[in-house]
From TrEMBL:
It is found in: Membrane. GO terms for cellular component: membrane. The lineage of its organism: Eukaryota, Viridiplantae, Streptophyta, Embryophyta, Tracheophyta. InterPro entries: AA_transpt_TM. PANTHER family: OS05G0424000 PROTEIN-RELATED. GO terms for biological process: amino acid transport. It comes from the Eukaryota. This is Amino acid transporter transmembrane domain-containing protein. The chain crosses the membrane at residues 58-79, 85-107, 150-169, 212-238, 300-319, 339-360, 429-448, 460-480. Its main location: membrane. Pfam families: Aa_trans. Keywords: Amino-acid transport, Membrane, Transmembrane, Transmembrane helix, Transport. Residues 54-486 form the Amino acid transporter transmembrane domain.
Length: 493
């Protein structure tokens, strides 16, 4: 695509020769333009961010992205392909791959304002970018979807982690007692255990302190994805056949087929969407080379890698189990043996989700805490930090606001997870709710505003068609996921 910003073309040759000057200038601009960046930030927070040394590279960005993208969604893809069939299932995953690359590349250019490379205002969050390019009213609409997304991921990851912990117990039980043994365990205790772990990790101050956790989580995500892929491949080879149908699972009524297929679309959308944390990750990158170039490279590489694994896991899972593919590939007990490998995969899932929970929670923490600090700049409870040293542990800083708010947040996500422990339905609903507004509508609107694209031009028409098609898919996925969630809740009660 050809971007029409005149500022960029006038400064591209100048930038490499004056990198030091621009680095100093951008810090001065940040100090004087804080009112244009984020509605929730004051001059004091801008001062702290201006002095922040950003050290991120393409590799740390890839680690953050993979941690955010490869999550609980990958485990539902075999079930999703089963609902859609051999033609529609992989085709929709390829479609979502292309959509994700396009929308993320559009969003990468929104980190700086008004120019993607040399703009003096940094948009450190999704909401800040929307305000810079589309205005305050649009920012508040985007903020509602953003906070719901962050919170929803916390619920989804709590459910998934509990299911995986329970699967480890069931796997060991089946190995000892036989595959027909009544190995039943509840979810609530495991959700409480995961919540207790998150109480500790939620005290990590911000994204800048999460590099090690993201790298570990990314390694874990690759590990369990490889295991799931390998188990599916081994079962296909062992059975000597590729199961499944071109049209997917047969249902008693057409309506039921529509509900399941649309829910599968929501699950696929959930697996691919990560735009809500893209600018938070981009804000960790070094300024040179330009952040948008580094982030586009990291984003494209990460999406291609994860999409390859998504398609393989979904396809091999469906080939292995056919129309009986479980809702969760590694916890639905299509695989019983080797039990230790199933245990290892589920342990990797839990470790990955510990980091994944924080990847999606830290942006919400930052927004809420900045708002409270701005309203109470002189409060010791809000602003003071205390250095704590426990035996055998390194010292750490404790902030009472952070301790109380984040503890309440973790408790609430855990409580809702206990009330609605429905894996596929929750993932489908979250994917449907967030995909169109955050991955399609706002990135396209910001691109059109940034490049001053006029209505009814060729580019404008292409993007409008793109948005309408994605909107129809989102509406269908939302209706099907709500129907599935309500039906599951009524059936359980």
């Amino acid at each position: 695509m050809v971007f029409s910003c005149q500022i960029r073309s006038a400064t591209e040759n100048f930038l490499p020769a004056s990198a030091k000057f621009m680095a100093e200038a951008e810090e001065k601009y940040e100090l004087t333009s804080h009112l244009l960046t984020d509605a929730h930030e004051s001059s004091s927070s801008d001062l702290s961010h201006a002095s922040l040394k950003r050290t991120g590279t393409v590799w740390t960005a890839i680690a953050h992205i993979i941690t955010g993208v490869i999550g609980s969604g990958v485990l539902s893809l075999a079930w999703s392909v089963a609902q859609l069939g051999w033609i529609a299932g992989p085709s929709f995953m390829l479609l979502f791959t292309a959509i994700t690359i396009i929308s993320s590349n559009l969003l990468c250019d929104c980190y700086r304002f008004p120019d993607p490379q040399v703009g003096h205002v940094r948009n450190r969050s999704y909401a800040a970018a929307v305000r810079s390019y589309l205005g305050k009213k649009s920012m508040w609409v985007a903020a509602i979807f953003l906070q719901e997304t962050y919170y929803g991921y916390g619920i989804a990851y709590t459910i998934t982690a509990a299911i995986s912990m329970r699967a480890i117990m069931k796997s060991n039980c089946y190995h000892k007692e036989g595959h027909d043994a009544p190995c039943e365990y509840g979810d609530s205790l495991f959700m409480l255990l995961f919540g207790a772990v998150q109480l500790v990790f939620s005290q990590i101050p911000d994204f800048q302190n999460m590099e090690l956790l993201s790298i570990i989580a990314a390694v874990m995500s690759f590990a369990y994805t490889f295991i799931g892929l390998g188990l599916g491949f081994a079962k296909v080879i062992g059975d000597g056949e590729i199961k499944g149908d071109f049209t997917g699972v047969a249902t008693a009524t057409v309506a039921q087929k529509v509900w399941l297929s649309s829910q599968a679309l929501g699950d696929i959308a959930f697996a691919f969407t990560y735009n809500v944390i893209l600018l938070d990750i981009q804000d960790t990158l070094k300024a040179h080379p330009p952040e948008n170039k580094t982030m586009k490279k990291a984003s494209t590489i990460s999406i291609l890698i994860t999409s390859f694994f998504f398609i393989c896991c979904g396809s091999f899972g469906y080939a292995a189990f056919g129309n009986q593919a479980p809702g969760n590939l590694l916890t639905g007990f299509g695989f019983y043996e080797p039990y230790w490998l199933v245990d290892l995969a589920n342990a990797c899932i839990v470790l990955h989700l510990v980091g994944g929970y924080q990847i999606y929670s830290q942006p919400l923490f930052a927004v809420v805490e900045r708002q409270i600090m701005n309203k109470h700049p002189n409060s010791a409870f809000v602003n003071n930090e205390y250095r704590i040293k426990l035996p055998l542990l390194p010292s750490f800083k404790l902030n009472l606001l952070r301790l109380c708010f984040r503890t309440a947040y973790v408790a609430s996500t855990t409580g809702i997870s206990i009330l609605f422990p429905y894996f596929n339905q929750v993932l489908g609903l979250l994917g449907a709710l967030n995909f169109w507004p955050l991955a399609i509508y706002f990135p396209v609107e910001m691109y059109l505003a940034q490049n001053k694209v006029r209505a009814w031009t060729g580019t404008w028409i292409v993007f409008q068609v793109f948005r309408v098609v994605c909107l129809l898919c989102t509406i269908l996925a939302f209706i099907g996921s709500v129907e599935g969630l309500v039906s599951s809740k009524l059936a359980r009660s």
